[in-house]
Design brief:
alpha/beta
C-alpha cells in the first residue's frame, strides 16, 4: 500500500544522482520536493519524474545554496509546504575548479557543500522533528584531508579536488557531530553513492579529469548511485541507527557499513565544524 503522507526533500536534483533519488522516492509514493538552482531545469525534471512515476505530488524548489538569503528562502518555502518532513537528503555539491568567494565572503565549496546543509537542518528543524526525519549527508573524494582551521581553503595554492575532499570530510564530521549532540526523533546518516558516471564526475578539476575519463566504464549509473541514500531514508531496519555511515565505491555492497577516514570521524573536529556553522547560521 502506498503511503501518500510520507514527505522528502532532495537537494541538487537537476541531473545525475539527485534526479534518480527524487524519482525513486516518488516511485515509492513519497511526496517529494526536488531542489535545483535553475528554475527552468528544476521544473523540467519535476515534470519528467511525474511522468515516469505517475506521482503528481512532486514539487520544485529553487535556490542558490551559496547564498544565505536564498537558502533562508528555500527553507521557508519547504517548511510552508512540508510542516512535517520525513527525509532530507543533501545531495547537492560543487567541485570547484577555482577559488570563488560568495557574496557573503565565503569560499563557494564550503558554503554550498557544508554550510548550506547545516543551515537547512537548522532552519527546517521543526519540520524534521515533526516528521521524525532521516537526514542524509554525503561523503566522497576518498581523501583524508581536513584542516578544521582552514575550512575555506585560504592557505597555499588552491586545488579544487582537495577543496572538494575537505568539504566532504567536513560534511561527514558535521553529520556525526550533529547525531551525537541530538537527543530527539531525527536520525542522521552519512553515505557515499560510489563512483557514479555523472556530468560532475566527467568534469572534475585539474589532474582528476584523467581519472574520470579512464574509469567511466566501471562507474555506476546515476540510478545505481541513488540506491544507498534512498535506502537510508526509507529502510525500517535502520531505525535507531543514527550516526552511522553506509555505502561503498563499486560492486554489490552498497548497503555495507562505510569506513570513513579518521579525520571525518574525529569528534573534536566535528564539534568545531558544528560550532563554526552555527555561528555562520545565527
Amino acid at each position: 500500500m502506498v503511503d501518500e503522507h510520507r514527505t522528502a526533500v532532495v537537494t541538487g536534483t537537476t541531473g545525475g544522482i539527485g534526479t534518480e533519488i527524487g524519482r525513486e522516492l516518488a516511485r515509492q509514493g513519497f511526496t517529494v520536493g526536488m531542489h535545483g538552482r535553475d528554475r527552468a531545469r528544476t521544473e523540467a525534471v519535476v515534470q519528467d519524474v511525474r511522468r515516469t512515476t505517475g506521482n503528481d505530488r512532486v514539487h520544485a524548489f529553487v535556490g542558490d545554496l551559496g547564498k544565505r538569503s536564498e537558502v533562508r528562502a528555500l527553507a521557508d518555502a519547504i517548511a510552508e509546504r512540508f510542516p512535517s518532513l520525513n527525509a532530507l537528503i543533501h545531495n547537492a555539491a560543487v567541485v570547484p575548479h577555482d577559488r570563488v568567494v560568495t557574496d557573503e565572503g565565503l569560499e563557494q565549496g564550503f558554503a554550498v557543500n557544508v554550510l548550506a546543509p547545516h543551515r537547512l537542518n537548522t532552519w527546517l528543524r521543526p519540520s524534521l522533528v515533526a516528521g521524525s526525519a532521516r537526514v542524509v549527508g554525503f561523503w566522497g573524494g576518498g581523501s583524508d584531508v581536513l584542516a578544521v582551521d582552514d575550512l575555506q581553503s585560504e592557505r597555499g595554492a588552491f586545488d579544487g579536488w582537495t577543496c572538494y575532499c575537505q568539504t566532504k570530510n567536513a560534511v561527514a564530521a558535521l553529520t556525526l557531530a550533529t547525531a551525537a549532540a541530538e537527543d530527539g526523533p531525527v536520525q542522521w546518516f552519512v553515505t557515499v553513492p560510489g563512483l557514479v558516471n555523472t556530468p560532475g564526475m566527467r568534469n572534475l578539476p585539474g589532474r582528476m579529469i584523467w581519472f574520470s575519463r579512464l574509469l567511466w566504464w566501471a562507474m555506476r549509473s546515476p540510478a545505481e548511485g541513488a540506491r544507498t541514500p534512498v535506502w537510508l531514508a526509507t529502510a525500517p531496519e535502520l531505525a535507531g541507527k543514527s550516526g552511522e555511515a553506509y555505502g561503498n565505491m563499486l560492486g554489490s555492497g552498497w548497503r555495507n557499513p562505510l569506513a570513513l577516514p579518521k579525520t571525518a570521524t574525529d569528534p573534536e573536529a566535528g564539534r568545531r565544524i558544528l560550532e563554526r556553522c552555527a555561528q555562520l547560521s545565527a
